[in-house]
User: Fold this.
Amino acid sequence: MPSASSTQDAQRQHELVVVANRLPVDSRTLPDGATEWVTSPGGLVTAMESVMRTVDSGAWVGWGGTAGEAPEPFEADGMSLYPVRLDQEDVERYYEGFSNATLWPLYHDVIVDPEFHRTWWDSYLSANRRFAEAAAPVAAPGGTIWVHDYQLQLVPQMIRAKRSDVRIGFFNHIPFPSVELFSQLPKRNSILRGLLGADLLGFQRESDSLNFVSAVRRLLGYHVEGMTIFVPGLGASPVREVQVQTFPISIDSAAVSALTEDPQIRERAAQLRRDLGDPAKIVLGVDRLDYTKGIRHRLKAWGELLDDGLIDPHDAVMIQVATPSRERVEAYRQLRDEVELTVGRINGEHAPIGRPAVSYQHHSFDRRDMTAMFMAADVVLVTALRDGMNLVAKEYVASRPDLHGVLVLSEFAGAADELRAAVMVNPHDIDELKAAILRSLAMPAEEQEEAMRSLRHQVMEHDVQTWAHNFLQQLEESGDPEPAVTPTIHLTGETPSEAGEVETALTAFAEVPRLLIASDFDGVIAPIVSDRDAVQPDAAALTALRELSELPGVAVALVSGRALADLDSHTRMPSSVVLVGSHGAEVGALPPWMQAEVLDQSSLTMTEQKEELLASITATLRRIARAHPGTEVETKPTAAVLHTRNAKGRGSINATESALEYAMTLPDVTVTPGKEVVEFAVVPTSKGAAVDTLARASAADAWLYLGDDVTDESVFAQLGDRDLGLKVGGGDTAARLRIADTEAVRGVLQRLLELRGQRR
Ligand code: GDG
Assistant:
């Protein structure tokens, strides 16, 4: 039992934070209402104990196992534990529902039908958010957060949204299904995007890693090279690389093996055999009572062998430990009924008086008893229909330093990739399973020893400590996390650059043979006004742009977040000025000399699916707008935009928060937060990409860009040596020069006209 001392300090900064559905301790409420914590030793706890010892400060975020208010954070076994609250409804919807009745069957190849309810998904989303909110603030700057398993697939992205400075790893303990099966999952893209918040994604088997990568490629269309996924950035943020790798989990092999030396445990093993009536052979199965474990198939094979007279129940006894699991989920109740009916039938038909043909144990045992059972077992049956790894297989091997015993192993368990010397079976083939059992019961001692030596070599060399160490080391190497401030920021504050500095830059720029001059519209050519339709562009600035566009070797473009038609009606530019609307999604007519083929229009295609998506986004944004008076929704051909400039009080902040929260639930949508606007584009665009394309289409040797908004940072982020970026107004920017306002913009354009005109 941990020595629990409560701490109120929820903001402690930890080097390593583990996030898992369950804490490594169980809470128990004492009669006087106080909470007692009891250590629950599992494989993950053991693995983490060893790595926690290597860091100065470790933490674990998880649920304590009891519905209702979560206790305050506390210290136990040298770790800080942060309990997460799950209400009864969360337990039913997030845990028993979406995790164990939707994801679990789907990820295990639909052995039973997955059930889905939208309320379950809502609860999964909010519970994941609670785990993320508990974990994000407690990691140290530049620290590491390791998220575990299918219950928490949205957590990596949710943490990243709050902490871009930490390394985030995710390990999936269960299989990842083929893309055909995964595609059935409602909200599949949200799950993929949630996972891709991590820097490193770990899976049990190579096939799981490959399945994940192909799901990302097929469903999100992201670029993939080998096992590296390139995740497009949100708004102006850069592309991020996510590594996918296989890390087969293991056990604390040395500790398990050492238990077999204990005289008491040896005696227990001998006693067990006597209790069963001294059979020549003991066959053992140990599983959570779960339909993935193939318990029914195993019992069927055993029952038929008895029916066929191929096994004499006086000679051989089967022990089936079926630990109670998920008993409130319907499929598990049904399984229990079926298993117990079958065991009753087999015993009724075959058990000699006073001893079982199948000794069925529907309760759990302590670790020492488990080891005694493994030591007594001549054959262990692992017949999973689908299993991430299966630790029982490895525990049996670690429990046999005497090199006796046979492991029958399903090819559908992850362990099959490593434990090649086991007797492999396809558990769906009952005849094959029966033959494998008979072969194992009859296997000569030397053959057993040879196989067991090879199996032990594998298990003793690759233990859970190595597994955790390898994962964390790979995470460490998976690229530096972004520092809290992006490195491209060149100017902060409000102060405009020295006039002389701007003049020097403009003079040098005007000398470049072929130029592109591009500018944002609102806040640059026209002052910002609260009524977007009443915008008044600076006539002199527009004139300067028009005249520049008529000079040889000069291309001019206006690049705006506004829809193309809207931009056109407010600027009335001649065809020599290129208009780009909707952050690059819409490009107007090009002057004849521009290389139109450079413009890849393919991304502009609106499919029916995208139309539908846009309609549903628009509807949701309208709902958000109704809840926050003063906010409004603009629709564009490829995007919907929430404008919050005219909201009352905290309305702008609240509406933006709701919109960004909603954004996290969406499939592949480019979400661009700007100055009191949030844009949801269903075709991927950025002003940066648009300017880059225009520069190529006009064969420009250098470009100049004027912008005031965060969406303009995607342009400034790609400034080359000869290019010129001018930030209009205050704020952090990747541009190297700052000018004050639209008046200064007019000055810059007129000066450029002068300089370039003189060159003629
Ligand atoms: C998931 C994946 C993956 C069972 N009964 C008792 C008991 N156990 C222990 C076993 C073993 C563990 O529980 C079960 O681990 P498995 O690997 O077999 O399966 P899952 O619970 O489904 O675990 C699985 C694993 O995560 C790790 O990544 O391998 O594929 O499904 O350690 O010995 N332990 C004790 N008493 C029992 O009655 N003490």
Summary: The chain is about 40% helix and 20% strand. The first strand starts at residue 5 and ends at 6.
